[in-house]
Specification:
Binding site for Zn(2+) (chains A, B): 78, 94, 101
Family (chains A, B): Belongs to the PRA-CH family.
Number of domains of chain A: 1
Number of strands of chain A: 8
Oligomer: homodimer
CATH topology of chain A: Ubiquitin-like (UB roll)
Shape of chain A: globular
Helix content of chain A: under 10%
Largest interface: A-B, 37 and 37 residues
Number of helices of chain A: 1
EC number (chains A, B): 3.5.4.19
Largest sheet of chain A: 4 strands, mixed
CATH superfamily of chain A: Phosphoribosyl-AMP cyclohydrolase
Radius of gyration of chain A: 15 Å
Organism (chains A, B): Thioclava sediminum
Enzyme class (chains A, B): hydrolase
Strand content of chain A: 35-45%
CATH class of chain A: Alpha Beta
Strand order of the largest sheet of chain A: 2-1-6-5
């Protein structure tokens, strides 16, 4: 069946959550949001393109930082209201310069930082 | 720093997305939602507990199906508006009896089913 971005279920703001997973390591890098047009752009260009809720504009990941995400595969969940993008990540995915945004673990009730910023 | 579920950023409905990842294989199993109380319950009980938006009630994963998720670790992202739960998943995570909800891949513009339902 041909894939149509309009067939996905978007929230009241026209957005769907997209989970970015490192295609090589399997690590979860980040979670951000897409609208139908950014889903289409991501598939067309092979560059993962989110929708920035704060800037209200397309966010081609790495466009300014160089930390691009090349799409390896997009997957849709059973309810069609969440996306998984398998990516090749250049450098850090997080704006804090860490490889992943999920660098804080809860261990024994305490917050523990488990990743340090990458060297430039 | 002690972790307080109230320190997370919830959406207008008081919810935060939670990504469940298989602690052993690294596969993404599903994405669902938690409120502050289900975050606390998940940490207290070690059983991953979402908030069901459709039923408007706690959803202790596997409570009826037996397909429980035991928490190995909870992680918080940089913006504190998304959670990653590393889990030990009993059987399928998806209500379609597939191991993961993300069983539809987009390949060459077509939807391709990449997982089949598990045997009981």
């Amino acid at each position: 069946m041909p894939f149509d971005p309009a067939s996905l279920t978007y929230d009241a703001n026209g957005l769907i959550p997209a989970i970015a997973q490192d295609a090589l390591s399997g690590d979860i890098l980040m979670m951000a949001w897409m609208n139908a047009e950014s889903v289409a752009k991501t598939l067309e260009t092979g560059r993962v393109t989110y929708w920035s809720r704060s800037r209200k504009s397309f966010w081609v990941k790495g466009e300014t930082s160089g930390h691009v995400q090349r799409l390896r595969e997009m997957r849709v969940d059973c309810d069609r209201d969440a996306l998984l993008v398998l990516v090749e990540q250049e450098g850090p995915a997080c704006h804090t310069n860490r490889r992943s945004c999920f660098y804080t673990a809860i261990r024994d009730g305490e917050e523990v930082e488990i990743l340090t910023p990458m060297e430039d």
